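Take a sample.
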Amino acid sequence: MKKALCQTGYYVAAVALVAVILLSFGYRFGEALFVGTMFLPGALAARWLYPKIAFTHRWEGIRDGLFVTAGLLVGEILLVILAHCFIRRFRTGPHVLYVPDVADALLNPVFLALILLVLVAGDIWLSRWLERKYPAAEQPIRFVSDRHEVSLHPSEIRYVESNDDEVWVHATEGRSYRNKTGISQWEALLGPGFLRIHRAYLVNRAFITEYTAETVTLADTTLPVSRKYRERVRSLAGM
Protein backbone atom coordinates (compact mmCIF):
# COMPACT_ATOMS: atom_id res chain seq x y z
CA MET A 1 0.00 0.00 0.00
CA LYS A 2 2.80 2.41 0.92
CA LYS A 3 4.61 1.64 -2.33
CA ALA A 4 1.48 2.32 -4.40
CA LEU A 5 0.86 5.61 -2.58
CA CYS A 6 4.48 6.72 -3.02
CA GLN A 7 4.49 5.95 -6.73
CA THR A 8 1.14 7.68 -7.23
CA GLY A 9 2.47 10.70 -5.35
CA TYR A 10 5.61 10.65 -7.52
CA TYR A 11 3.64 10.85 -10.75
CA VAL A 12 1.36 13.57 -9.37
CA ALA A 13 4.44 15.62 -8.42
CA ALA A 14 6.11 14.82 -11.76
CA VAL A 15 3.10 16.02 -13.76
CA ALA A 16 2.99 19.20 -11.66
CA LEU A 17 6.69 19.81 -12.38
CA VAL A 18 6.17 19.28 -16.12
CA ALA A 19 3.25 21.73 -15.92
CA VAL A 20 5.52 24.37 -14.36
CA ILE A 21 7.94 23.92 -17.27
CA LEU A 22 5.09 24.21 -19.77
CA LEU A 23 4.00 27.54 -18.28
CA SER A 24 6.87 29.10 -20.22
CA PHE A 25 5.02 28.18 -23.44
CA GLY A 26 2.17 30.56 -22.61
CA TYR A 27 -0.28 28.16 -20.99
CA ARG A 28 -2.50 28.88 -18.06
CA PHE A 29 -1.67 26.58 -15.16
CA GLY A 30 -4.73 24.37 -15.64
CA GLU A 31 -3.89 23.99 -19.34
CA ALA A 32 -0.25 23.22 -18.57
CA LEU A 33 -1.37 20.60 -16.06
CA PHE A 34 -3.67 19.05 -18.66
CA VAL A 35 -0.90 18.87 -21.25
CA GLY A 36 1.46 17.51 -18.61
CA THR A 37 -0.84 14.55 -17.97
CA MET A 38 -0.40 13.60 -21.65
CA PHE A 39 3.09 12.42 -20.76
CA LEU A 40 1.80 9.84 -18.28
CA PRO A 41 0.67 7.22 -20.85
CA GLY A 42 4.04 7.38 -22.61
CA ALA A 43 6.03 7.13 -19.37
CA LEU A 44 3.98 4.21 -18.06
CA ALA A 45 4.13 2.43 -21.42
CA ALA A 46 7.91 2.90 -21.58
CA ARG A 47 8.29 1.60 -18.02
CA TRP A 48 6.37 -1.54 -18.99
CA LEU A 49 7.62 -2.15 -22.54
CA TYR A 50 11.38 -1.60 -22.41
CA PRO A 51 12.12 -4.38 -19.87
CA LYS A 52 10.32 -6.80 -22.18
CA ILE A 53 12.72 -6.19 -25.07
CA ALA A 54 15.02 -9.17 -25.37
CA PHE A 55 18.61 -8.70 -26.57
CA THR A 56 19.33 -12.39 -27.07
CA HIS A 57 19.94 -11.35 -30.66
CA ARG A 58 21.51 -7.90 -30.43
CA TRP A 59 20.23 -6.43 -33.68
CA GLU A 60 16.73 -7.71 -33.13
CA GLY A 61 16.75 -6.13 -29.68
CA ILE A 62 17.99 -2.82 -31.11
CA ARG A 63 15.35 -2.97 -33.83
CA ASP A 64 12.58 -3.65 -31.29
CA GLY A 65 13.88 -0.83 -29.08
CA LEU A 66 13.77 1.62 -32.00
CA PHE A 67 10.25 0.54 -32.92
CA VAL A 68 9.04 0.96 -29.34
CA THR A 69 10.72 4.38 -29.08
CA ALA A 70 9.22 5.56 -32.38
CA GLY A 71 5.78 4.33 -31.35
CA LEU A 72 5.97 6.08 -27.97
CA LEU A 73 7.08 9.38 -29.52
CA VAL A 74 4.41 9.31 -32.24
CA GLY A 75 1.81 8.53 -29.58
CA GLU A 76 3.02 11.44 -27.43
CA ILE A 77 2.87 13.86 -30.35
CA LEU A 78 -0.71 12.80 -31.11
CA LEU A 79 -1.69 13.17 -27.44
CA VAL A 80 -0.17 16.67 -27.28
CA ILE A 81 -2.01 17.72 -30.45
CA LEU A 82 -5.26 16.29 -29.05
CA ALA A 83 -4.75 18.22 -25.81
CA HIS A 84 -4.27 21.42 -27.81
CA CYS A 85 -7.50 20.79 -29.67
CA PHE A 86 -9.38 20.60 -26.38
CA ILE A 87 -7.61 23.69 -25.04
CA ARG A 88 -8.42 25.70 -28.17
CA ARG A 89 -12.04 24.58 -28.04
CA PHE A 90 -12.31 25.62 -24.39
CA ARG A 91 -10.78 29.02 -25.11
CA THR A 92 -12.90 29.81 -28.18
CA GLY A 93 -16.24 28.34 -27.18
CA PRO A 94 -18.14 25.14 -27.85
CA HIS A 95 -19.06 25.88 -31.50
CA VAL A 96 -15.59 26.55 -32.88
CA LEU A 97 -12.77 24.05 -33.14
CA TYR A 98 -9.36 25.11 -34.39
CA VAL A 99 -6.29 22.97 -34.77
CA PRO A 100 -3.90 24.84 -32.49
CA ASP A 101 -0.40 25.96 -33.25
CA VAL A 102 1.64 23.67 -31.07
CA ALA A 103 4.89 24.97 -29.63
CA ASP A 104 7.83 23.65 -31.64
CA ALA A 105 9.38 22.07 -28.54
CA LEU A 106 6.29 19.92 -27.98
CA LEU A 107 6.66 18.47 -31.47
CA ASN A 108 10.38 17.92 -31.06
CA PRO A 109 11.05 14.18 -30.52
CA VAL A 110 14.23 14.95 -28.57
CA PHE A 111 12.36 17.19 -26.12
CA LEU A 112 9.56 14.64 -25.70
CA ALA A 113 12.06 11.80 -25.26
CA LEU A 114 13.93 13.82 -22.62
CA ILE A 115 10.79 14.37 -20.56
CA LEU A 116 9.84 10.69 -20.81
CA LEU A 117 13.39 9.68 -19.88
CA VAL A 118 13.35 11.86 -16.76
CA LEU A 119 9.92 10.54 -15.70
CA VAL A 120 10.91 6.90 -16.20
CA ALA A 121 14.33 7.33 -14.55
CA GLY A 122 12.68 8.89 -11.50
CA ASP A 123 10.18 6.05 -11.31
CA ILE A 124 12.96 3.43 -11.54
CA TRP A 125 14.97 5.15 -8.79
CA LEU A 126 11.89 5.42 -6.56
CA SER A 127 10.95 1.77 -7.16
CA ARG A 128 14.42 0.58 -6.18
CA TRP A 129 14.44 2.78 -3.08
CA LEU A 130 11.02 1.46 -2.05
CA GLU A 131 12.18 -2.13 -2.58
CA ARG A 132 15.07 -1.53 -0.21
CA LYS A 133 13.00 0.32 2.38
CA TYR A 134 9.91 -1.92 2.23
CA PRO A 135 11.14 -5.33 1.06
CA ALA A 136 8.29 -7.55 -0.03
CA ALA A 137 7.97 -11.20 0.77
CA GLU A 138 9.76 -13.23 -1.87
CA GLN A 139 7.37 -14.34 -4.58
CA PRO A 140 8.00 -17.44 -6.70
CA ILE A 141 8.83 -17.13 -10.38
CA ARG A 142 6.64 -19.36 -12.53
CA PHE A 143 7.69 -20.44 -16.00
CA VAL A 144 7.40 -23.35 -18.42
CA SER A 145 10.25 -25.79 -18.99
CA ASP A 146 9.84 -28.69 -21.41
CA ARG A 147 6.04 -28.28 -21.27
CA HIS A 148 5.98 -28.45 -17.48
CA GLU A 149 5.23 -25.52 -15.19
CA VAL A 150 8.06 -24.75 -12.79
CA SER A 151 7.90 -22.55 -9.70
CA LEU A 152 11.13 -21.22 -8.17
CA HIS A 153 11.89 -18.53 -5.63
CA PRO A 154 14.61 -16.12 -6.86
CA SER A 155 16.75 -17.21 -3.91
CA GLU A 156 16.83 -20.73 -5.40
CA ILE A 157 18.21 -19.54 -8.75
CA ARG A 158 22.02 -19.57 -8.91
CA TYR A 159 22.44 -18.17 -12.41
CA VAL A 160 20.71 -17.87 -15.78
CA GLU A 161 22.54 -18.89 -18.94
CA SER A 162 21.59 -17.88 -22.48
CA ASN A 163 22.35 -20.49 -25.10
CA ASP A 164 21.34 -19.50 -28.64
CA ASP A 165 17.51 -19.46 -28.67
CA GLU A 166 17.19 -21.05 -25.24
CA VAL A 167 17.84 -19.99 -21.69
CA TRP A 168 18.90 -22.39 -18.95
CA VAL A 169 17.90 -21.57 -15.38
CA HIS A 170 20.39 -23.17 -13.00
CA ALA A 171 18.97 -23.62 -9.50
CA THR A 172 20.15 -25.05 -6.21
CA GLU A 173 20.50 -28.80 -5.65
CA GLY A 174 21.82 -29.27 -9.18
CA ARG A 175 18.51 -28.47 -10.85
CA SER A 176 18.46 -26.92 -14.34
CA TYR A 177 15.47 -25.85 -16.42
CA ARG A 178 15.22 -24.94 -20.09
CA ASN A 179 13.09 -21.93 -21.03
CA LYS A 180 12.40 -19.73 -24.07
CA THR A 181 12.25 -16.37 -22.25
CA GLY A 182 15.17 -14.09 -23.22
CA ILE A 183 17.90 -13.41 -20.68
CA SER A 184 17.19 -9.65 -20.75
CA GLN A 185 13.62 -10.39 -19.71
CA TRP A 186 14.90 -12.62 -16.92
CA GLU A 187 17.14 -9.76 -15.81
CA ALA A 188 14.16 -7.40 -15.59
CA LEU A 189 12.06 -10.08 -13.87
CA LEU A 190 14.60 -11.05 -11.21
CA GLY A 191 15.62 -7.49 -10.31
CA PRO A 192 18.65 -5.98 -8.55
CA GLY A 193 19.52 -9.15 -6.63
CA PHE A 194 20.96 -10.50 -9.87
CA LEU A 195 24.01 -9.20 -11.72
CA ARG A 196 24.54 -9.35 -15.49
CA ILE A 197 28.18 -10.30 -16.11
CA HIS A 198 28.05 -11.35 -19.74
CA ARG A 199 25.74 -11.37 -22.73
CA ALA A 200 25.05 -14.98 -21.82
CA TYR A 201 25.14 -14.94 -17.99
CA LEU A 202 23.03 -13.45 -15.21
CA VAL A 203 24.10 -14.45 -11.70
CA ASN A 204 22.53 -14.32 -8.25
CA ARG A 205 24.69 -11.97 -6.15
CA ALA A 206 24.02 -14.07 -3.03
CA PHE A 207 25.83 -17.08 -4.55
CA ILE A 208 29.01 -15.26 -5.59
CA THR A 209 31.95 -16.60 -3.61
CA GLU A 210 34.82 -15.05 -5.55
CA TYR A 211 35.31 -12.63 -8.40
CA THR A 212 37.97 -10.97 -10.51
CA ALA A 213 37.83 -8.55 -13.41
CA GLU A 214 37.49 -11.51 -15.77
CA THR A 215 35.58 -14.21 -13.86
CA VAL A 216 32.88 -14.72 -11.26
CA THR A 217 32.79 -17.89 -9.17
CA LEU A 218 29.69 -19.43 -7.64
CA ALA A 219 30.98 -22.26 -5.41
CA ASP A 220 32.16 -24.84 -7.97
CA THR A 221 31.11 -22.88 -11.07
CA THR A 222 33.29 -20.21 -12.70
CA LEU A 223 31.75 -17.94 -15.31
CA PRO A 224 33.43 -15.41 -17.63
CA VAL A 225 32.93 -11.65 -17.33
CA SER A 226 32.75 -9.78 -20.63
CA ARG A 227 34.46 -6.44 -21.14
CA LYS A 228 31.09 -4.66 -21.27
CA TYR A 229 30.17 -5.73 -17.73
CA ARG A 230 33.54 -5.49 -15.94
CA GLU A 231 32.66 -2.23 -14.22
CA ARG A 232 29.59 -3.87 -12.71
CA VAL A 233 31.72 -6.67 -11.32
CA ARG A 234 34.26 -4.20 -9.94
CA SER A 235 31.40 -2.54 -8.06
CA LEU A 236 30.81 -5.77 -6.09
CA ALA A 237 33.20 -4.56 -3.40
CA GLY A 238 30.87 -1.66 -2.75
CA MET A 239 27.70 -3.71 -2.46
